[in-house]
Amino acid sequence: MTGGVPKKYLVYKSRPVSGRQMETKEVDAERMLHLKFVRRLHQMRGTSLLSGVLIRLSALKEYEDSELTAARIAAALGMYIRKGDGQSYETDGNDSKENERELTIQPGIIYDDLKPGEEIGMVKSDRPNPNLETFRNGQLRAVAAGSRLSFSSTARNYNGTYSAQRQELVESTDGYLILQDWFIGAVTRPMYRAWLKQAVASGVIRLPRDLDRSSLYTAVYSGPVMPWIDPVKEAEAWKIQIRGGAATESDWVRAGGRNPDDVKRRRKAEIDENRKLDLVFDTDPASDKGGSSAATKRQEPQHTDDQSEE
Question: Which of 163, 92, 81, 150 is nearest to 116 (CA)?
Answer without folding.
Answer: 81
